[in-house]
Design brief:
The chain is mostly helical and 225 residues long. The protein has ten helices and three strands. Strands 1-3-2 form a three-stranded antiparallel β-sheet.
């Protein structure tokens, strides 16, 4: 909570916050030499379970519900089991260990570990959702994934945050529910959502500028009637 509050108070750009959360290493305990508040996003469960980390990262930062593709291809969207386990491979090398204090967990890059497809048990290469399979030899998988996550090549990131902010001020998202983005749940106003996403990208993910645009809009000034 302190990490997030301090980041927003300093108006740290949203892409930087997301990158720090997803790639965090260090201790989750305040007062230790390598304490890093961002590590707490990768809780013990997320750190030890690549599939859970995949589901939460996709839902929180992209608005995508992909967890059902652990067992079968998505019945209402484009995502397949291959997509899911390819994306999960970015989280397969998260290491964690206990410190002298049993309450403290240290998260690090183990540089080893793979995800296997439940059908056929084949090793899955890391693959961006709906994107390419990058060459990650000698690279930190989470860093590569985080760079893609906040890039213009990812069509979901900017519009997802824009939709979340819109829902906060209007009580309902342009896509509703906000964490259920799929082809069978289209936006109520695609042009508006795309414009907000474009502005957010042009603002270099400056959260406050996006909030200002929405709050000073004619739409926000209207009475509920």
């Amino acid at each position: 909570q302190k990490y997030l509050r301090d980041s927003l108070a300093r108006n740290k750009y949203y892409n930087e916050i997301v990158q720090e959360l997803v790639t965090a290493t260090g201790s989750n305990t305040p007062g230790t030499d390598n304490y890093n508040g961002a590590v707490n996003f990768l809780t013990m469960k997320l750190a030890e379970n690549a599939t859970l980390a995949t589901a939460e990262t996709s839902r929180v930062f992209l608005g995508l519900q992909v967890q059902c593709t652990q067992c079968h291809n998505h019945p209402f969207d484009r995502w397949t089991q291959d997509d899911y386990y390819g994306f999960a491979s970015f989280f397969s090398q998260i290491g964690r260990k206990r410190a002298e204090d049993p309450r403290e967990t240290i998260v690090f890059n183990s540089r080893s570990g793979e995800v296997r497809h439940p059908v056929g048990n084949r090793v899955m290469k890391p693959k961006f959702l709906g994107g390419e399979t990058p060459d990650l030899k000698g690279k930190d998988r989470r860093v590569a994934m985080a760079n893609w996550l906040v890039s213009a090549e990812n069509p979901f990131f900017a519009t997802n945050l824009a939709n979340l902010v819109w829902a906060h001020f209007f009580g309902k998202g342009i896509i509703d529910e906000v964490d259920d983005v799929r082809v069978s749940n289209p936006p109520a106003n695609a042009e508006l959502l795309n414009e907000l996403g474009r502005r957010f990208t042009d603002y270099k993910y400056d959260f406050k500028r996006l909030v200002r645009d929405i709050c000073t809009s004619r739409t926000y000034q209207l009475a509920t009637q």
